[in-house]
Amino acid sequence: MHRLHLHLLSDSTGETLENIAKAALAQYDDVETVRHFWPMVRTEAHLDRICQEIAQNPGLVIFTLVNPTTRNALETRCRALGLPTVAPLDPVTDALSEMLGQTAKARPGRQHVLDAAYFARVEAIQFTIAHDDGIAHEDWEEADIVLAGVSRSSKTPTSIYLANRGFKTANIPVVIESPPPALLYRLKNPLVVGLTTSADRLIQVRRNRLLSLHQAPETDYVDQEAVVRELAFARRLFADNGWPVIDVTRRSIEETAAAIIGLVNERRGQPVMETE
Predict the structure, then answer these.
(1) CATH code given to domain 116-267
(2) Which CATH architecture has domain 2-111?
(3) Where in the chain is the domain with CATH 3.40.50.2300?
(4) pLDDT in tens, 165-198
(5) Which three-class secondary structure string do you get for the chain?
(6) pTM (predicted TM-score)
(7) Quick one: CA dihedral 216, 213, 131, 255, positive or negative?
(8) Which of 3, 43, 109, 195 is close enough to 149 for a disulfide, judged by CB 3.0 to 4.6 Å?
(9) Quick check: 44 and 70 in contact, CB under 8 A?
């Protein structure tokens, strides 16, 4: 087991930096990481206090500081301590500057400005939470996306992820005994997407859910034949209505959402890629 002190310094919220560090650390096993997180680093006085902590707990220093004075001071002090520093956004910023023929503006936290896109995401999140699990179906025409699938097919977490990307998303459970509202088949604005999965995976997820609720783990809800019939019913429903289908068996929520965003962009005549 390796022990690593990881110092993360940002002149904004540090969300970007945390995500970069998390993604990199996921590539290594048997590492005990002690994270020292320093957001809103914008003065040398603040940096002085941080460098004292770094000296007491030497390790890797990763930073996203755009002010040249502050970052130069950090790099100088880390060199004196013999510690490596990494500025992970520099290669991207340098490449953009070269391609665009512009110099970066060095504005801290610019990506967190409360612009129209930010408020659109807030509205999408509010809509999605209010239209989970078939609730308020009379408003579905206002949605960008409607997800349909059997119970525990990742509809809600996928909806929330899509909402965070700015897409108003509703979802509806497909239940053999309870047909969905007729409105579902008349929707014009939203893209309806069917989510499916393998029977074995679905049974495992459902059984774990029952155990977490301290309920009997052997019911029709997890019966092999019943689950197979349920999935077949959902697939026929999707096929009969010409809805695109995504198998989530081996997909993460992020991968499922990316595929759905691709379908939305394709429908809108936009390039098939994720957009910020």
Answers:
(1) 3.40.50.300
(2) 3-Layer(aba) Sandwich (3.40)
(3) 2-111
(4) 899 999 999 999 998 999 999 999 999 999 999 9
(5) CEEEEEEEEECCCCHHHHHHHHHHHCCCCCEEEEEEEECCCCCHHHHHHHHHHHHHCCCEEEEECCCHHHHHHHHHHHHHHCCCEECCCHHHHHHHHHHHCCCCCCCCCHHHCCCHHHHHHHHHHHHHHHCHHHCCHHHHHHCCEEEEECCCCCHHHHHHHHHHCCCCEEEEECECCECCCHHHHHCCCCEEEEEECCHHHHHHHHHHHHHHCCCCCCCHHHCHHHHHHHHHHHHHHHHHCCCCEEECCCCCHHHHHHHHHHHHHHHCCCCCCCCC
(6) 0.64
(7) negative
(8) 195
(9) yes
Beta bridge partners of 268: none
Phi, psi of 119 (to 5 degrees): -70, -30
More confident residue, 216 or 154: 154
